[in-house]
Specification:
single chain, 4 strands
Length: 108
């Protein structure tokens, strides 16, 4: 995250509900909306195989980095659901990560 230039901005609901969500972003030179990941993102990526594989690797690296570089924590609730706690910005990024079902890299 040290190379990020913009992470988030306020919108209605953030202050009143204390909840933040990712609605759009840019990675690997491609704009996306949160409901675009990963399929629409990859469709907009260059269609030749090496580039598509490159974009998949970038998304996997991004997904892994979001999980490993967060101070937010995830806990299991009694009814079986899972909940994040911590910085609202980090929670929003982790929720995007979870909802997009991006593959994680295997770290040896």
């Amino acid at each position: 995250m040290g190379n990020a230039t913009t992470i988030c901005s306020d919108k209605p609901g953030t202050l009143t509900l204390n909840r933040m969500t990712v609605v759009a972003g840019v990675t690997s030179g491609i704009d996306f909306e949160s409901d675009d990941l990963p399929s629409a993102f990859l469709e907009r990526a260059v269609t030749d195989q090496p580039s598509t594989d490159h974009h998949r690797q970038v998304l996997s690296l991004l997904s892994t980095s979001l999980n490993m570089n967060s101070t937010a924590t995830e806990t299991a609730k009694s009814e079986g659901s899972r909940e994040f706690s911590g910085s609202e910005t980090e929670i929003a990024l982790l929720q995007l990560n979870r909802e997009s079902r991006l593959p994680l890299l295997r770290i040896a």
